[in-house]
Amino acid sequence: EPSAGAAGRKGAPLPPPGHRAHLHGAPGIMSKDVTVDVASDNTTAYTINVFNSLDNGSDDLAGTIFLVVMLLMFLCFTCYYSCTGTVSACRTSFRKCRHSIHRTLFGARGRELWNQHTEAVVQRDAAAARDGSAALLGVSAADDPLEMSLAALVGLDTLKEEIRALRRSLVVDRQRRKVTGAARSKGFQGAPHMIFMGSPGTGKTQSARLIAKLLKELRYVDGPLIEVQRADLVAGFVGQTALKTREVVNRAKGGVLFIDEAYTLTRRGQNSDFGVEAVEEIMKDLTSGDPVVILAGYPREMRGFLASNPGLSRRFPLRLDFPDYSIDELALIFEKVVERNGYVLDGGCGLAICEALEAFPDTVRRKFNGGLPEALFRVSRDHLSKRLNVVLMDATEAVTIKGEDILAGMQRLRQTMGEETKGRSNQTRQTNVVQRTNGPKPGGGQS
User: Using an 8 Å Cβ cutoff, are 210 and 220 in contact?
Assistant: First the structure.
């Protein structure tokens, strides 16, 4: 206001009429040039016109920035949707570089494992040469990393023999190249694509993880294990499934691709054609063998899945059946679950484990398989917690599961399952228990 300026102070001379003053950095005017027009007739009212010379320039600058941003967004969307193949190739190259760096930095551990596998095969051949025996496979050794890993699998003898044979083939192939001086063949010739067929809980996923780990130790692959299902491969729009599946396959390059419940890709129903598109995209890489592909599913459904495409069946020469677990195998799995969770079994738990497992009908055991011992352990642990006194218990009692915990857990588990557990009489269970008293007892306990 005029009173705040020089003209507003008492005794200050007023500028002549028509005077135009330029103020620089006046307070309250943000340090911008201001032109002041002083009215005539010495009036105390001033008309101040502020001309901001940057107003028009600011508008032009904002418009330019907006256009640049919109142009960049347009270019990004264009590159993303029209250059998908180039982007995928760049991602694949990046993953290969990452794997190379990992091998360089952490290759010592891989060489050590490979040497252990090689030494195990050499020892077997040396023993066979001394004894004149032709049985070179299936010989266990305490220092053999392969046998130590296979010990985690209950049953599955056929799968174990296939893994031993694969390990031996790789070692012999390397020794053959060393003797003959031949160069290593490029690619994955005769890749061990596999199909696992079995009921739920028979160890298909665990076996796939173990095989991927062993193949990496044997330097057959150097990439990761990628576990997927139908939802990870199939899109909801025409033309998008192939792109989605290709991205998954590229992620698994150099490693192992495990597709669980693979039969759902060709199941009749909604969006079935999209699943077929995913199968056709995967088949493009089956011949090259990179990645190694493992399919898993139920036996009947997987046979129908293989029959859906004439070229699919011949690309999976190795097919393994995962049978349902027997009572003894389920008991062994229960013991492994107890040990894995840091608990121990009381000396008299052998019969209690078998009795608890036999209390369930065959249909329930076939439905759950390895999941039944897992569930039985959880309810047995809960009964142990209910039985213990937190003030009086010692370190041994806190982790010791007794037969009464297992039988009480069995009763609780049967109640939660309801109708599924009906159909087996107490007399049949008692007969089975009596028959087992004359044989070996799982867990090494006495009744």
Answer: no
φ/ψ region of 356 (left if φ > 0, alpha if ψ in -120 to 50, else beta) reads alpha
Question: What span, in angstroms and rounded, lies between the C-alpha atoms of 89 and 438?
Answer: 65
Check residue 50 and give left, alpha or beta (phi > 0: left; psi -120 to 50: alpha). Answer: beta
- pLDDT, tens digit (0-9, with 9 covering 90-100), for 163-215: 888 888 888 887 788 888 766 554 445 678 999 999 999 999 989 998 898 88
Q: Above pLDDT 70, what percent of the chain?
A: 66
- Six-digit token pair at 352? 């209690």
CA distance linking residue 9 with residue 19, whole number of Å: 19
Tens digits of residue pLDDT in 379-422: 999 999 999 998 889 999 999 999 999 999 999 999 988 756 66
Task: Please determine, for residue 273, whether its predicted confidence score (pLDDT) is greater than 60.
Answer: yes
pLDDT band at 277, cuts 50/70/90? confident
Q: How far apart are CA 46 and CA 406, in angstroms?
A: 99
